[in-house]
Specification:
The chain is an alpha+beta fold. The chain is built from 15 helices and 8 strands. The protein is elongated, with a radius of gyration of 28 Å.
Length: 346
């Protein structure tokens, strides 16, 4: 015997079939002339998105232009009509592939065309504010993200969409809760997919993403001495790529930046603690106090012991010297790095 939920879904589908899809959620996000909806088989209204399984029929070749009010993610559940293509106006002139799973950001103008014919699809209308709140950041939709959205090949996203379609067609125990959980997983995977496409593009272009640069700077200014291998791992790239990309992004070598950050940390320790020079040298990653003294003098034109005496003779407080040390670190950080870090932390 079918469950009450399944019966309700079928009744809703039959009602939509009789009404020709007039009550479809699609009409709230995309005008009905983009899809000639025969009927809505199933729908789910979730906290972050509205989902619907649609049966469409184009009786003639179609060409249309639509502005998207919300983010739209859809998956073809049947073979698409011949010569179906999607394009966004910012991508004119770019070679794009249209796959069976498409993500189209809000505010974009969609150009769609098809030879006509039947099609089934799962359409998800995503609320932009809910997506950004879930991901904890505002998404950027440049060319890389738009191209990646027209052909989403991520396996996890495809599997989640298929599972959502099955659950909507034949709902089971706690169906709403399961669909909410699947929707959350879907949006996180979607955000990662778009972010990774930008990282790949920037890697190919030889530069670092803002979040990669922020991780490098945070690691360089931590107490433990940084290693290039550790920072490369944090950024998901090789040491060789890190060295090349840091130079391309900031204009200075990563070695010079790390050395400046280490000297700034040394100034803070000399002014704010009574640690002997040997202990400070070891904490900063030097094998011998003599090596530390040479590096400190090369950067500041002053020996570590002389710096400590001068600071204390002038009555500077540890807090003031820590601020001065931070100022040295900020000066060492290239302007491009500082702006990128600021954007990544916003």
């Amino acid at each position: 015997m079918p469950s009450p939920a399944a019966s309700a879904h079928r009744s809703l589908a039959h009602a939509d079939r009789r009404q020709g899809g007039a009550s479809s959620l699609l009409n709230h996000g995309l005008r009905s002339r983009l899809f000639d909806v025969s009927y809505s088989e199933a729908r789910a209204q979730l906290s972050a998105m509205d989902c619907e399984i649609l049966h469409c029929e184009w009786e003639r070749p179609t060409r249309t232009r639509e502005r998207l009010d919300d983010h739209v993610l859809w998956m073809s559940l049947s073979t698409r009509p011949a010569r179906t293509s999607l394009q966004l106006t910012p991508l004119n002139g770019h070679a794009c592939t249209t796959g069976s799973v498409n993500f189209l950001p809000a505010g974009q103008v969609l150009l769609a065309q098809s030879d006509g014919g039947p099609q089934q699809l799962l359409l998800c209308r995503i609320k932009p504010a809910r997506l950004e709140a879930l991901l904890g950041q505002q998404l950027e939709f440049g060319v890389a993200e738009l191209v990646a959205g027209l052909d989403v090949r991520d396996r996890d996203i495809r599997c989640t969409l298929m599972r959502m379609a099955r659950e909507m067609r034949v709902p089971g125990l706690a169906s709403q809760g399961l669909l909410e959980a699947l929707a959350t997983s879907l949006l996180i995977d979607l955000g990662r997919h778009l972010q990774m496409r930008r990282v790949v593009e920037q890697r190919e272009a030889g530069s670092l993403a803002p979040w990669q640069l922020k991780r490098i700077c945070d690691r360089a200014e931590s107490d433990a001495p940084p290693r290039l291998a550790d920072m490369a791992e944090l950024c998901g790239i090789s040491v060789r790529q890190l060295i090349r990309a840091f130079k391309a992004t900031t204009g200075e070598t990563v070695h010079a930046y790390l050395e400046a950050a280490r000297i700034a940390r040394a100034c803070s320790l000399l002014a704010g603690t009574d640690l002997p020079l040997k202990a400070i040298a070891i904490q900063l990653g030097f094998h011998h106090a003599a090596n530390f003294s040479v590096a400190f003098r090369r950067s500041t034109q002053e020996a570590p012991s002389a710096y400590r005496l001068r600071v204390r003779a002038h009555g500077s407080t540890p807090r003031n010297e820590s601020r001065r040390a931070q100022g040295m670190a900020d000066e060492a950080r290239p302007a491009s790095a500082a702006s990128s870090v600021s954007q990544a932390g916003a």
